[in-house]
């Protein structure tokens, strides 16, 4: 970007009054001057990108595209921390105001944990903010995982918050089948191992049956084991 400014300044200095009657000749001379200036000042490696270009504008646009600042949105915590601060303090009005100006921030992550705002609200069990965020997120956004491989649904199931679980599942059924990476357990297993049987009951009604079949992995067997343990120790509610 600094080089861009310097070259433009140099070309302004070189651009005196053109006395040539032939406008095409005048343009060709200016084009050659500009192209030559760009070629000799951009470095050997970068020159290879434009060495066959005869148009100064095309050479300029090629370099501009190649070296334009790359967006650092997803992990730019300093830019998007007002959203996380608002969620942390439970202030949905501030969070909504920020998301109105920066709608893509709904999938931004904290670099140290890879948590989204939804992960944070779920961890805090702020049901209102969770519901509002889910409305703004796409199905793919709900598949985002933190550094330990947890989706927000897995976290909600572990917490045993049925309202948050139902809210997320209404938006996406695919997340029912996504296991956490650290222990390879789907949301229904996290609910069962923590004896949140109301959540288990709900998730069992919506989890694809094939996810619990032997060929899919140990998920069905693990669920049955947790269920038997719950029966043995009398932790199951009467309706189950």
UniProtKB/TrEMBL annotation:
SMART domains (UniProt xref)? ANK
* Superkingdom, taxonomy of origin: Eukaryota
InterPro entries for this protein: Ankyrin_rpt, Ankyrin_rpt-contain_sf
Q: Where along the sequence do coiled-coil regions lie?
A: none
Gene3D superfamilies assigned: Ankyrin repeat-containing domain (1.25.40.20)
Q: Pfam families, alphabetically?
A: Ank_2 (PF12796)
Quote the protein name from its UniProt record. Ankyrin repeat family protein
Give the species this sequence originates from: Prunus dulcis
């Amino acid at each position: 970007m600094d080089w861009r400014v310097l070259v433009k300044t140099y070309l302004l200095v070189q651009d005196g009054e053109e006395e040539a009657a032939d406008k095409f000749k005048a343009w060709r001379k200016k084009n050659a001057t500009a192209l030559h200036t760009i070629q000799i000042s951009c470095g050997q490696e970068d020159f290879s990108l434009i060495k066959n270009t005869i148009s100064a504008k095309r050479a300029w646009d090629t370099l501009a595209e190649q070296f334009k600042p790359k967006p650092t949105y997803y992990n730019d915590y300093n830019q998007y921390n007002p959203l996380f601060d608002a969620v942390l303090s439970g202030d949905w009005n501030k969070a909504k105001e920020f998301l109105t100006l920066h709608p893509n921030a709904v999938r931004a992550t904290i670099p140290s944990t890879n948590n989204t705002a939804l992960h944070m609200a779920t961890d805090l069990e702020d049901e209102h903010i969770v519901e509002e965020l889910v409305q703004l997120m796409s199905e793919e956004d709900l598949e985002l995982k933190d550094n330990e491989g947890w989706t927000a649904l897995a976290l909600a199931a572990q917490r045993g918050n049925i309202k948050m679980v139902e809210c997320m599942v209404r938006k996406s059924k695919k997340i029912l089948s996504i296991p956490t990476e650290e222990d390879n357990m789907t949301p229904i297993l996290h609910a069962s191992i923590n004896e949140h049987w109301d959540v288990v009951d709900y998730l069992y009604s919506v989890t694809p049956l094939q996810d619990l079949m032997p060929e899919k992995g140990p998920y069905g067997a693990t669920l049955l084991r947790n269920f038997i343990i719950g029966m043995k120790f009398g932790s199951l509610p009467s309706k189950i």
